[in-house]
Each structure stands twice: as C-alpha cells, then as structure tokens.
Here is the input.
Amino acid sequence: GLPAIVTIGLSLGVKRLAEKRTIVKKLPSVETLGAIKIIATDKTGTITQNKINVVKIVLPDLSSVLIEGVGFASKGTFFTAQKKIIDPRTISPLEITLRAGILSSNASFEEKEGALLPLGDTTEVALLVAAMRAKLDITEVKNSEPKVFESPFSSERKMMSVVVRVDETDDHMLYAKGAPEVMIEKCILSPAQKKHILEDTKRLAQNGLRSLLLARKKLNIQEVKNALENDTISEDKLEFLGLVGMQDPLRPEVKEAIAKAKEAGIRTIMITGDHKETALTIAKEAGIVEENKTVLTENDILLFSKKELACKIKEGVNVFARISPLGKLRIIEAIKSIPHTLVAVTGDGVNDAPALKASHIGIAMGQTGTDITREVADMVITDDNYATIIDAIREGRTVFANLVKF
Here is the structure.
C-alpha cells in the first residue's frame, strides 16, 4: 500500500499548495520542501515590494533634491533639503538628470482601463515616474532624441549606456547609468567630488535606498559610426549628472514570515545585487541579521574556496551583496556541501536560473519571473511573496508527517 499512499499523500499536498498560491511542478518536491533548512532569497520583489520610487537626487553642485510620491502615481512634490517646495523645471541640472533617466530607460507605460500600467524593469520605471512627477512628457522626450545605439546592462559591467540623436541635428549624446562605484571611475571628477559622491552613496545605502549614477557625454559623428560598425563604444570621460536614491519598501508580511521560519528552524539568507550597506539595512529591517553583521560581496567570495565559503555560512553570514549570477551559484554550491542541509532558492530573473537549477528545490516567482526561471524551477509562487514560501514549507512538513504516520 505504500506506493499508493505516497502518491496520494503527495497529490493531496500539491492540491492544498495550489490553493495557497503555490504551483508544484514536480511531485516529489513536496516532500523535499518539508526538509528545507535554508532559504536563499533574492531581495528585490521577494523581501521588498518591487515598487521602487526615486526619493532623492544629488546634483553636480552636490545639492540635494527630495521627491515625494506614492507608488506609480504621476503626481509628486519636489523639495530642497530645507523642505522648500520647488518647480523641478526651473532647475536646469535637475531637468537634465530627469531627461537622462528617460533617455537611458527601456521601460514604458501602457494605458489599461484608464490606469497607467508600467512595463519593463522597475528601476527604469522609477526614473520615468520621477520625470512624470516633474511634468516632463516622456513620449516627447524620447521622440526628440531618438535612440540609435545601446550598450546593454550586464551584471559584470553593472552599467548600461545609450546613444541618442539630438533634435534632428547631427549632434549625438551618450547617456549612461549604473552602480555609483563603477560609474564614478568613468566620470571626469576631482578626488574631492568623488569622495563626496561615494559618501552620499553610503548615506543613501544606510537609509536602505538603492543608488544609481547618471552621466553623459557628447559624441562626434565618427564615434557614432564606429559604435554602429563595431557594436562597442567608449564609456569614459563622462559628465556627472546626478546620483539617484531609490526606495523599495519592505513587504509588510515579510518580518513575521522570517520570524516564523526562524522558529521552525529555517534560516533565511539574502543574496542581492545591491550595495552592501543597502542590503544590510534591509536585512536588519526584515530580521534576517541580528548579531552577525558580516556582509560578503562578490570580491570576497571569489577569494574563498568552496569549503571556506561553507564555513563562513555555517558561522552565520546571512547577507551577500553585489553578487553576480555565477557568484550566486557558488554560494548555493557551498551551502549544498554542508552535510544534512537542504537549500531552497528563490529567483525571478534569467540570471537566477543557474542557482535555481543547482538547488535542492528551485522556487520561481509567478508574477515577475521570466519564462526560463519558471521552466527550471520545481515550484512557482503565484504572488511573489516570501510569506507564501513559508506556508508552502509548513504544508510540505505536514505531508511528510502524514507519510511517516502511515
């Protein structure tokens, strides 16, 4: 009777999980789910809401502008650091920075039943929303400076750039955006300015904000021709336009879910591509870290062997920042080498697929997840919520207990 009971028990588990917003693709993974000891989770969209808002911009004269607004609403208010309301279109450097945000973004808005629905990367959507709050017309800006070339973002480069043609003239402009520590080396800045911008980046990160640096430079027609022929362009000697601080609030139910997981003996490890200070602040807010405040970055883990990395994880390192897809895979392999430790990995992007495939159980996000992540995963969470994963593990344990009782 055992084969029949095992199959029925697992099938009933799958049915109950489906009612709890969890789609199980492989029947045996219900049982594996109950034995999970570590969940390696992404930050953006799983622990945070993925509703990113630009809340602060540091301009080239190193003055700050604060922005208030909710969600993707196009209405917002701009303030100086002294809380004085300003019209963003009267401050030329601010308008240039916001225009650069529009031109270096591939995101857009679609009108559906009278509401604007964002399409594309949420970071780029946040830049468009900030421009809309400044009453800039996104379509008009994009049409006035059409894109002729793009050097796309990659987790190795940590930046992207576009070449646009200015107002139907032969003038061309390169706009770039990326991680401040990478971009700062490509901008023409004095050592004092660099120091100030890095300090601002750190301050933003300590407040749990993500940061993005925008820059530009003028191109001659020959440089543009070379870019189109050779599919590459020089991204050096840029003019610094602004440092953008973005807020991605914590999901309200995450803190409780992580505490419940801890009580059940499940440890949460956060692996993110964000700045280490941002990662640590969010991890503290969510309750992922308490005593051990060590954050390891990609550069750190490359120095460790698999065994050393496994030791660090056993010692209690729970936060990894500025990690590439291959770095994430390395971390998962190290966790797997710890005896009697089953690991679940959550992810939504193409870059998460190798780690999802390597884990004992891969959990893909149903709303923001790409096709390939859903393809390689063992389970799909339909509401992209960390709390749902904890519910699913509880269900997995119940199924396992039922089988043992039988």
